[in-house]
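Progress narrative, work stream C.
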Amino acid sequence: MTAARAGTEPSRAYARYVLGLLFAVYVVNMIDRNILNILLEPIKVELEVSDTLLGLLVGPAFAVFYTFAGLPIARFADRGSRRAVISIGLALWSLMTALSAFVRNYTQLLLARIGVGVGEAACSPAAHSLISDYVPPGRRSTAFSFYAAGAPAGAMVGYFVGGWIAELYGWRQAFLAVGLPGIALAGVVWWTLREPPRGRYDAEAPPDASLGFVLSFMARIPALRHVIWGGALHSFASLAIGSWHGPFLMRVHEMGPGEAGSWLALLSVSSTLGTLAGGPVSDRLARRDTRWQMWATAWATLAAVPFYLGFYLWPGRGAALALAVVASALSGFFYGPLLAVTQSLVRSNMRAVASAILLFLNNIIGLGLGPIAVGALSDRLDPVVGSHGIRYALLIVVISNVWASAHFFWSTRTLREDLQTHREAVPEPGDQP
C-alpha cells in the first residue's frame, strides 16, 4: 500500500456502513427485478399473453438492455464517480418500476422493464469495485457474500409483498408500492456515500485499461474462464427456475398469489442463509487451500440438483417445500466465492469492467435465455401434459447446474497459480490467517 493510500484509510464503522448501504441498494434492485415473477399469472390473465411472451418479458427484454448498458456504465465507474453511477441508476430503475403500475398493454410493460434493466445495470459493477476498495483481500469473500445476500433477500421481500398486494389490491399496486421507496434511497446514496481511493489494498496499477485489454487479460487466465462460464450456467438454471416458481406453484399446487409469494419468500430466506454461509465457509476453507473457494462452490451447486428434482416431482406440498428449502440454500452458496475470486484475479483499475463482463455473460445466458427457455418449453409441453408443462420445463432446465459444477471443478486446476500470477492484492497487517 502506498503512503497516500494509507493516509486515507476509512474507519471500520464507515466501511461497514458503506457495505450495509450497498446491501440495501441491492435489496431494492432485486425487489424491483423479482416482483414481476410473482405477478406473471395475473398479468397473463389481464393482458392475455402466452408463456413465451411472459418469458420474453422476464428474460430478454430486461437482460439484453441490462447487459449491453452495463459495459459502458462500468467503464465510467472505473474512471468516474461510482457514487453517481449507483444513485442515478437506482433512481431510474425505481421510477420505471413505479410507472409499470400505469401500463395499458403488453408493449408498454415491455418498455418499462427495459427501463428497469438499463437502470439496474448501474448497480453491481460499481458496487463490486467499491467493496474491493473498502474491504481487505482476506475478508472479501465474506463481504461479497453479505452484499450478494441482497439478491435472495430482495427476492424474498418482492415475492411476499408483491404476492399479497397483488392478491388484495391488484398487480398494478404492487409495482407502485415497491418502486417509490427506491427513489428516496437514491438520495441517501448521493449524500452519504464517499468515494475511496482506487486500489487501496493493491499494488499500483496503470491509470486506465481499455475494454479490449480487460477482455484479453481475463481471457488469458484459465481459472477465470471456468469461473465465469460456471457462473453463467449456474445463472441460466437459477434465474430460469426462479422466474417461474410462482406460476409453478399456482398451476401445479393451485395456490393464489399471496400463498405462492409466501412460499417463495421462505425459499428466499433459505437462499439468503446459503449465500451468507458461502463467503465465510469458503474464506475459512481457503486458509488451508485457496482452491476450496471453488471446490466448495462446485459441490454445493451439484448437490442442489437432486433436491430441485424432488421439489418439482413430489406431489405433497410439505415434502416439496422441504426439498426446495435445501435446494435454495445450496444454490445460493456460490455468489460470494464467485465474486471474490473474480475480483482477486484482476487488477484494481479493471474491477468494475470485470464485474460487468461477468454480469454480461451471467445475464445474457442466464436471464436472457433461461426464463424464455422455460416459457417456450412450457408452451410446447402444455398440449401434452396440460397445465403441468411448467413442471417438466423446470426439470429440464435445472440439469444445467451439473455443467456449471464441472466448470467450477475445472477452475481449481490452475486457480492457485493464477492467483499468484495475476493478483496484485497487498495483504493488510493481521489480514492473513
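Work stream C, second folded protein:
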Amino acid sequence: MYICLCEPVTDRDIRTAVQTGCRNLREVAGQLGCCRDCGRCVRAAKEVIDIERAGLRANAAATAHPDACAA
C-alpha cells in the first residue's frame, strides 16, 4: 500500500529499506524521499519501520538461540 503520496513510496519500499540497513525514519526518508513534503505520511512510515525492525530483532533472536524455538 502507498504510504507516501507525494513521493510514490509503499510499505514494501520502506520494509526493504529497513532490511537493507536503514534504522530510523531519517535514514528511510533520506533513501526513499518520503516524509519530506506535506508530512502526512510520517506516522504511517514510522509504524512500518517499527514493525519491520521488531520482526528483524525477533528473527535475529531466534537465529541466535535456535533451541528456544524447539518445543
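The chain has a mean pLDDT of 92. No further action is required on this item.
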